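User: Show me a protein chain along with its predicted structure.
Assistant: Here is one chain, sequence first, then structure tokens.
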Amino acid sequence: MTRTLRQSAERIRKRLGIFCMTSEKDNILMWSHYANDHTGFCLGFKTRNAEGEPVLGQVPLPVDYASNRPCLNLIEKLDPKELSHALLTKAEDWKRESEWRIVDHKTGPGIHQFPADALCEVILGCRITPGNRNRVMRWCRERDPQPAVFWAEEKDREFGLDIVPIS
């Protein structure tokens, strides 16, 4: 029974695509963990267009942080609300991430294209190599529309980052 339930959970996981984002673009831990110790870059997206329609296919939903893992009943017909709650819940220890998610039930996991006008900003990590900085800057200049470009700069007197525009 346990093996069958695990296989059911794995089948569900393999059919879903989950796009994770944060609203904390200056979070020093996020840069350390997800941008290779500040050597990477961050993409900023619009979530809605001028008409209020979702730009990325869906509007991102906030992740809830809890001390208990949501429980799914995989024996009976899966309740979409329970599944959504399970996919949008993480342990309280991760609360600092301020995560938002888009859960894709239709096209599933993998690499997905986003509309060109969804990208509104690019933030370069404070330790990005000059070569990577030049590559990202060239990529931004060649895009239509061009995103705003920023630099994550370490603060002088405290632990933190300032996000400053690059002209």
